[in-house]
């Protein structure tokens, strides 16, 4: 194992952003940066011995500051969408800053655009820390947050989240990595074969806010319990596919008990395989339906459906939806969560 620290760049207002490259014994590499506590690279070797970076995103600060759709960033304090301009805590409305209309998306970028402190904690891990002040984007409490990235010799990217606040508040922290297992320049991800360990999903309205219903996937295009290509059913005449412009939905993972289990897996035609493990109740499948050709790494356009996300989470808008498990934490109550992305080369194609 080795970790190399370099300067990734500077922000438009002159602040330095550091990068940490972690390499394991299999020559897998990940790079994480202090801007947004971002997972910026994940480099693996394909069956032809070629190194490929399976994360769609940016290789300079200008891209992250001017063109991002949260590529690889840590999202919080509350990921995904919040309705009606605020949280519900103890029956009271807590207004938060909105992103568009009365909807708040990804906490209006609080965690994602901050520059985090970072320390190397071991030969295989880097820990980021950030203090989000009381009232930032409207969210209550001084929120102390850490995100620790570890790369194991099993090709596991382990992300450990810890958060605590001096006021009762909501936490739903995730990573917004966009994967293309053929490489960031690999074109569409519709040919990736996907499995999701979920019997149900949460339908949503035209603002992409879950209705509160938990709907069985059986008999719908949302059924990935038997692996199928992402593109197989995405064009079907379905109200929910139309609402999300494709898959952009929360899945209710089976066997939730706060313990780690397999949430999803994907395999590309080149044999590169991704497995996602989590201790969270849900995962958001997003397949790049709103990518629109912005310039990414090496000038490659991030076109429509050239990356997919598996965002582990509490269900979206949980604080405003009584039927969902709440994500509100008491003063001084510690929130902890772990997500693992394991990337390997499938031997039998």
Strand order of the largest sheet: 12-13-14-15-31-25-24-19-22
Instruction: Describe the sheet with the most strands.
Output: 9 strands, antiparallel
Which stretches of 5+ consecutive residues score pLDDT under 50? none
**N-to-C span:** 30 Å
Features:
mainly beta; 2 helices; 349 residues; nine-stranded antiparallel beta sheet; 31 strands
Topology:
Blueprint: E1 2-10, E2 16-23, E3 29-33, E4 38-45, E5 51-53, E6 55-56, H1 61-66, E7 74-75, E8 81-82, E9 86-89, E10 92-95, E11 104-105, E12 117-122, E13 125-132, E14 143-151, E15 156-165, E16 169-170, E17 174-175, E18 178-179, E19 193-196, E20 198-202, E21 215-216, E22 228-229, H2 239-244, E23 248-253, E24 261-267, E25 272-278, E26 282-286, E27 294-295, E28 301-302, E29 309-313, E30 328-329, E31 335-345
Antiparallel strand pairs: 1-2, 2-3, 3-4, 4-5, 6-18, 7-17, 8-11, 9-10, 12-13, 13-14, 14-15, 15-31, 16-30, 19-22, 19-24, 20-21, 20-23, 23-26, 24-25, 25-31, 26-29, 27-28
Describe this structure in words.
The protein has helices at residues 61-66, 239-244; strands spanning 2-10, 16-23, 29-33, 38-45, 51-53, 55-56, 74-75, 81-82, 86-89, 92-95, 104-105, 117-122, 125-132, 143-151, 156-165, 169-170, 174-175, 178-179, 193-196, 198-202, 215-216, 228-229, 248-253, 261-267, 272-278, 282-286, 294-295, 301-302, 309-313, 328-329, 335-345. Strand 3 (29-33) and strand 4 form a beta hairpin. The chain is built from two helices and 31 strands. The chain starts with a strand and ends with a strand. The strands form nine sheets. Strands 12-13-14-15-31-25-24-19-22 form a nine-stranded antiparallel beta sheet, with no helix packed on it. It has a five-stranded antiparallel beta sheet with strand order 1-2-3-4-5, with no helix packed on it. Strands 21-20-23-26-29 form a five-stranded antiparallel beta sheet, with no helix packed on it. It is mainly beta and 349 residues long. Helix content is 3%, strand content 42%.
